[in-house]
TrEMBL record:
Signal peptide: 1-20
Swiss-Prot/TrEMBL keywords: Signal
Protein name: T9SS type A sorting domain-containing protein
Length: 819
């Protein structure tokens, strides 16, 4: 994870230096909400929305939202009810981008009607109503006017309980004891569209996303104090937790208050926090069954038909940006010459622009604010001019426009509210440029020969302009001609292809490189990345057997990201370790470069391991949504085109002591600070014939998957043995290790060990506290029980390290001599 950048959660300064049209995916979790069944028969029915009835009478509006649903497991009856709810939402929303829903019909927990949430959040889409907040992807795409997560990926993931006593009709005449599927679908889609606070609660502490969701940014307490970015209620604090369970949390929206008697809508905040329900619903007691605003309350009763989101929900949605006026503008760059500066903007509104409201506000050196009425040049395009103030000045500015329908004034850049008194501004400097470009690049750590030619990618930005980006590289220490990267359109992305035209590049070579960017200033400024080292690798000939205790200086047999062969603090030897801690929403892969030919006998893969990864729900099954994070060993017999789990993935629940370590230190967000220790290592054996047949040539890899939720310490692997070739260290460990007796002693003691078969080249070594060898004793080939006398009587008292094995493959034991 691998992580994408987060924009600041709060704009503390008055000026906003970033581009208005940039946005970034939020790596924080994309949470879901839960709709629970209420046992009582409510016998209520809400009127259909007027906009839906009007659409049915006149036909579909050209601006109406388009919602496409991928159905999994639905019966025809259930799908028809679902589609009816979709038709209602389409009539109420405006979006130029198709909203995609993944809907699954499956058994859920007791009393759960359904659950749903956005699949991703994006920060600061172009035209955002507030900055420094996360927008659910469907809303972010509506505001930005473009696809953000790909044209085929779902924006909303929703699941519905296939075992409930459903009513599938669309007439709202729900019989007693049955639950209206149309109402539940409307409710859950509402969450996926943005009616979700993304809050959490644990050990008395309340938390919200970082940054908060657009919904959460409107939360207030009874006293009217905002509950996000407020030092009185820090994120993750008991003070915030007390607010979340106070019964008095409100959504401060001027638009919603206008349809709620002038008062803030009250949110569901019971004294006992309900995960997936608290804060992300309207208050049940305030908006009971039969109230026109009851759809988005936490429980849906039997015989309750709510085919209308209600005016409060719709106006809350409008406040968050479902009704919007987007001001699209590219920030002016710095300039080295004095001139008049033309400001262009495109304004897209869901209503009509208030005449004379499109304005440009600017100040020089933070002086008095000047106002320029922007001129409509054609269609949605507007222009204004900032007169050049001369050299060595800083100009700050922002744009504003209002619509007739809501009376709201929108600004670019958007300002985060509450707790920000000043309007955010762009800024640029006029005068000699001494600012170097900014270069971003995800470095290579390895490169397969088969990946050549390889396309380098980098992002480069500058306060004025980027004149050129190059890759300076060398192979085995010998420099080669620099590779020029080409800008992709008007973006900040640069691409260039590494080929062998400058000389061969083969497995075993070491490539070193850095990315260099230069600007177009009169006196050129340059920036460069660090110098990266890349191993050029290829797969090795297949072997029938493989063993590696990971302690020596073996050839490069593994490559990947998020893993390394290393020795963390507290461990006595090296092993394969994932990042500690691993990230949310990530996939870490360590690829073995030695393929294995599957044997009819001796067909096991074994290693010692620690797996402190987020445990799924009790009873959950690998491959289901509730299984959360996992580790898995995978094999491929088609050269990596497809991968098959050697066995089901597993998590910290796989062993009780792993689960105890995970639970030993958890945060309010569900993350674990539990740390892996050597005592947690446990053997694990896999049967390769369960998925492959003798003669298959299989590539193997180790994969750690982290979902968007909690994370922890990760995975460690030691003493890898494939198909019966056992190392001395692993065999001794499996048989109980070394036994030294008596210990402590005056210097005379015996060493016992068990070996299943004869081993040659065994040595017994004893080292002092400085690591110096004070005894080296050859051990004759043996099988079965070893019982060796050792005489250290002439050595001084102290602690010594005894090891038995072969170079780079030995088991060890501490020995104390006392005289």
């Amino acid at each position: 994870m691998k992580k994408l950048l987060l924009l600041p959660a709060l704009l503390l300064a008055a000026w906003h230096p970033t581009q208005a049209q940039t946005f970034v995916k939020d790596p924080a979790p994309a949470p879901t909400t839960i709709c629970y069944a209420r046992a009582e028969d409510m016998h209520t029915r809400l009127a259909l929305p007027a906009a839906y009835l009007e659409q049915q009478r006149r036909g579909r509006r050209s601006t109406a939202a388009n919602i496409e649903v991928t159905y999994t497991g639905f019966t025809p009856q259930a799908q028809a009810a679902f589609q009816y709810a979709v038709d209602i939402w389409e009539a109420l929303l405006v979006s130029p981008v198709t909203i995609r829903v993944q809907a699954t019909w499956t058994p859920l927990g007791t009393g759960v009607l359904g659950s749903a949430g956005a699949t991703a959040y994006y920060n600061d889409p172009s035209g955002a109503v507030r900055s420094g907040v996360g927008y659910p992807v469907a809303l972010a795409e509506k505001i930005a006017g473009q696809e953000l997560n790909g044209g085929t990926l779902p924006d909303i993931n929703a699941r519905f309980n296939s075992t409930f006593n459903w009513y599938y009709g669309t007439d709202g005449m729900v019989p007693a004891g049955r639950y209206d599927l149309v109402s539940v679908v409307l409710h859950e889609l509402g969450h996926g569209l943005g009616f979700i606070a993304s809050t959490s609660y644990g050990s008395g502490a309340g938390s919200y996303g970082n940054p908060p969701s657009i919904y959460a940014s409107f939360m207030e307490n009874l006293a009217g104090q905002p509950l996000t970015n407020n030092p009185l209620y820090p994120n993750g604090s008991a003070a915030l937790g007390a607010q979340f369970t106070s019964g008095n949390v409100y959504f401060n929206s001027n638009l919603a208050k206008a349809v709620n008697g002038g008062v803030r809508p009250r949110l569901f905040a019971p004294a006992t926090y309900s995960a997936g329900s608290s804060i992300s619903h309207l208050n049940e007691a305030t908006y009971p069954a039969g109230n026109i605003n009851s759809l988005m309350t936490p429980n849906i009763g039997a015989a309750e038909a709510m085919h209308n989101p209600g005016p409060i929900t719709l106006r809350m949605f409008d406040e968050m940006g479902w009704f919007n006026t987007a001001i699209r503008h590219t920030k002016l760059p710095d300039a080295e010459t004095s001139q008049n500066f033309l400001v262009n903007a495109t304004i897209i509104t869901d209503g009509t622009i208030t005449p004379g409201s499109v304005k440009l506000y600017y100040a020089v050196d933070n002086g008095a604010l000047n106002t320029v009425a922007m001129t409509n040049t054609a269609g949605n395009n507007y222009q204004g001019i900032i007169p050049g103030p001369g050299l060595n000045h800083t100009v700050s500015y922002y744009l504003a426009a209002a619509d007739n329908e809501t009376g709201r004034t929108y600004t670019a850049p958007a300002t985060y509210a509450p707790n920000v008194a000043t309007v955010a501004r762009y800024s640029f400097v006029i005068g000699p440029d001494a600012t170097a470009p900014v270069v971003k690049h995800k470095p290579l750590t390895y490169l397969f020969v088969s990946q050549l030619p390889y396309q380098f990618q980098a992002q480069a930005t500058d306060n004025v302009a980027v004149a050129g980006v190059t890759v300076e590289y060398a192979v085995n220490g010998v420099a080669r001609p620099a590779l020029a990267l080409t800008r992709q359109g008007a973006s900040s992305n640069f691409l260039g292809t590494l080929t062998t035209s400058g000389g061969p590049i083969v497995a075993g070579d070491v490539l070193t490189y850095r990315i260099v960017a230069r600007d177009g200033a009169a006196s050129v400024n340059q920036a460069q990345t660090a110098t990266y080292v890349v191993n050029i690798v290829d797969f090795k000939p297949a072997q029938a057997f493989y063993t590696n205790n990971l302690n020596g200086t073996a050839p490069l047999d593994f490559v990947g990201e998020g893993f390394a062969i290393t020795q963390p603090a507290g461990f006595s030897n090296a092993a394969i370790h994932s990042d500690h801690q691993y990230y949310d929403d990530s996939t870490l892969i360590y690829q073995m470069l030695v393929p294995i030919t599957i044997q009819p006998t001796q067909h096991t893969l074994s290693f010692d391991e620690i797996a402190l990864v987020e445990p799924g729900e009790p009873g959950s099954v690998y491959g289901t949504e509730a299984f959360y994070d996992y580790v898995v060993v995978e094999g491929s017999k088609d050269n990596g085109a497809t991968w098959t789990p050697v066995a089901d993935g597993y998590d910290a629940r796989f062993r009780p002591n792993w689960l105890a370590a995970w639970n030993s230190s958890t945060t309010a967000a569900g993350n674990s600070n539990g740390v892996g220790t050597p005592a947690l290592f446990a053997p694990h054996t896999f049967n390769l014939l369960s998925k492959f047949t003798p003669g298959d040539v299989v590539r193997l890899r180790f994969r750690l998957f982290g979902d968007p939720g909690a994370h922890g310490w990760g995975w460690a692997i030691d003493n890898l043995v494939i198909q019966g070739v056992t190392s001395v260290a692993s065999e001794l460990k499996a048989a109980g290790g070394l036994s030294v007796y008596p210990n402590p002693s005056a210097g005379l003691f015996r060493v016992r060990a068990t070996l299943a078969k004869p081993v040659t080249g065994l040595e017994l070594l004893v080292r002092n506290s400085l690591g110096q060898v004070v005894l080296r004793q050859a051990v004759a080939p043996a099988a079965g029980q070893l019982d060796l006398p050792v005489d250290l009587n002439k050595l001084a008292s102290g602690l010594y390290q005894l090891s038995l094995g072969q170079p780079g493959d030995a088991a060890s034991q501490k020995v104390l001599i006392q005289k």
